Amino acid sequence: MFDSIPIIDVGPLVRKKGDEDFREDPEVRNVVHQLDLACRNVGFFYVSGHGIPLELCQAVLDVGHEFFSQPESQKLRIAMSSSTGFRGYQKLGENVTKGLPDQHEAIDYFKEFESTKVALRSENPLVGLNQWPDSVSKFRPLVQEYLEMLIELARTIMRGIALALGGPKDLFEGERAGDPFWILRVIGYPPISNLSCLSNPNGEEVGCGDHTDYGLLTLVNQDLDITALQVKTQDGKYIWVDPIPGTFVVNIGDMLTIWTNGLYQSTLHRVMNNDSKYRVSVPFFYEPNFDARVEPFSFLQDSTAAESKRYTPVVYGDHVINKVLNNFG
Ligand SMILES: NC(=[NH2+])NCCC[C@H](N)C(=O)O
Ligand SMILES: O=C(O)CCC(=O)C(=O)O
Ligand SMILES: [Fe+2]
């Protein structure tokens, strides 16, 4: 169905998001049409014209490189465990995909829950505080500034996707994603050729195994000098996602598949760093409200599948908790 990843200039969405005639604006309609095609046919697209400074994106990658180049003892000061709510640093091989260890190290951040939601706290294994390295100066303020901008950008793109589906522009606001959960990962991939002990019995080492993302929309900021991300096409072939300066690689997540009853499918992808250099990427995951009940939109069911083929409803928080517990055994 597809052999390349489209590039979408979302400038009009960003500039006109407050306009009263947003829906009817010809430039907006054009972007919405491109989003619809990309989400139906590929599940992946590049986004340009987003307004986030290239210097900020680069600075976030740079502090990632600086963090990972430290000795292990320094990195383990912010180690992730069940007692940190699975927030913090994970060593190479600690993250598992489909039963096999991934050849990446990472720091995982999740939106912090408000302490007032007592019931949520006691049962939710993701409750905890994010862990910031004090050994890399500016790490925390840079990443926090970046996060705020990406939350806003993802919200804007979701508004375009809402129109692409033929819904109201606030389709993903309120109880669905008006109080969005989010995940940010700062990931480091050593060159595969440098790995001293091979852990995969099949002999094929991967930086991150085949998977789909869990929520609504992922925005990936990646090193510009290495191609390592691969998207799986319907016939099982992989296509490389070359970095393009000034763009994010965007892909849709599992919750959008359910809400659209399969019209927009989350696409399998993986990471292979065959380069001789160390690669850093920073994916940001924009998710539904943690307690959102996700079920196919009634206005889409006729056009998508028969009642008997409906996607099973889930609570987003249950889905992500299951995934995280699986990733770390
Ligand atoms: N939050 C993520 N998207 N993590 C990376 C995906 C790989 C993860 N181990 C999985 O099985 O899904
Ligand atoms: O490193 C990348 O380019 C993508 C990582 C990824 O797919 C993920 O963490 O979900
Ligand atoms: Fe992913």
Automatic annotation (TrEMBL):
Q: Which Pfam families match?
A: 2OG-FeII_Oxy, DIOX_N
Q: Which UniProt keywords apply?
A: Iron, Metal-binding, Oxidoreductase
PROSITE patterns linked: FE2OG_OXY (PS51471)
Highest taxon of the source? Eukaryota
Q: Where in this chain does the record put each Fe2OG dioxygenase domain?
A: 179-288
User: What are the GO MF terms of this UniProt record?
Assistant: 2-oxoglutarate-dependent dioxygenase activity; metal ion binding
> Matching InterPro entries, A to Z?
DIOX_N, IPNS-like_FE2OG_OXY, IPNS-like_sf, Iron_ascorbate_oxido_reductase, Oxoglu/Fe-dep_dioxygenase_dom
Q: Which SUPFAM superfamilies match?
A: Clavaminate synthase-like
- Assigned protein family: Belongs to the iron/ascorbate-dependent oxidoreductase family.
Q: What is this protein called?
A: Fe2OG dioxygenase domain-containing protein
Task: Give the species this sequence originates from.
Answer: Physcomitrium patens
